[in-house]
Design a protein that fits this description.
Layout (H helix, E strand, L loop, with lengths): L1 H15 L4 H11 L3 E11 L15 E12 L4 E10 L2 E5 L5 E5 L2 E11 L2 E11 L5 E10 L7 E12 L3 E13 L1
Antiparallel strand pairs: 1-2, 1-10, 2-3, 3-6, 4-5, 6-7, 7-8, 8-9, 9-10
């Protein structure tokens, strides 16, 4: 696990030292700034087979809201810190088939993102914090980045999260970001 973390987070940083910073920083500042803050609104889908049988017709779409802070190393490469809260409770099965309540879980992740041709790919790790159990999260996703002007973007995204040995989720999100 530590080796994956080092590869995902540190290798791109080492490669950045080889880039001509004066050209890239000037272009980035003219383009849209080095920092982006975005509000995110998503619907998280957890497959029905992961819900506990006692859950009466589980709502499989969980509303999730959050905020992202993104720092651009170059025009294409960035690191993104996302914080999200699930706005409902649900009951999942644990590995023994017993019920496991997840109530308004808070998720924080750090991902490395790469943008190319208005699409962004990102991957990283984080934690989901909840009163009864905290879970390690592995996250991958893709987003389409629409920029109506040089400061604002609207980005629909698909996100896949693997929550430790507990469960997995698919999220369909939209982020509204501001660059400065």
């Amino acid at each position: 696990m530590k080796k994956i973390f080092l590869v995902v987070f540190l290798c791109p940083l080492l490669l950045l030292g080889q880039v001509d910073k004066s050209h890239s920083e000037t272009h980035l500042e003219e383009h849209n700034g080095k920092i982006r803050i975005a509000g995110t609104f998503s619907q998280t889908y957890i497959p029905a087979h992961q819900y506990h049988e006692s859950e009466d017709s589980p709502s499989q779409l969980i509303p999730t809201d959050g905020i992202e802070i993104q720092y651009f190393f170059s025009e294409h490469l960035s690191v993104k810190w996302a914080n999200e809260i699930e706005l409902m409770s649900y009951i999942l099965k644990d590995e023994n088939g017993s019920s496991k309540v997840r109530k308004n879980a808070f998720l924080t992740t750090a991902t490395i993102a790469y943008e190319l041709f208005d699409f962004g790919l990102f991957a990283g790790f984080g934690y989901e914090f909840e009163k009864s159990e905290n879970l390690l999260v592995k996250r991958v996703g893709i987003e389409y980045i629409f920029k109506p002007n040089k400061y604002v973007d609207i980005s629909p995204a698909y996100i896949f999260d693997s929550m430790g040995d507990s469960h997995m989720s698919h999220s369909f999100a939209i982020a509204i970001g501001y660059h400065f």
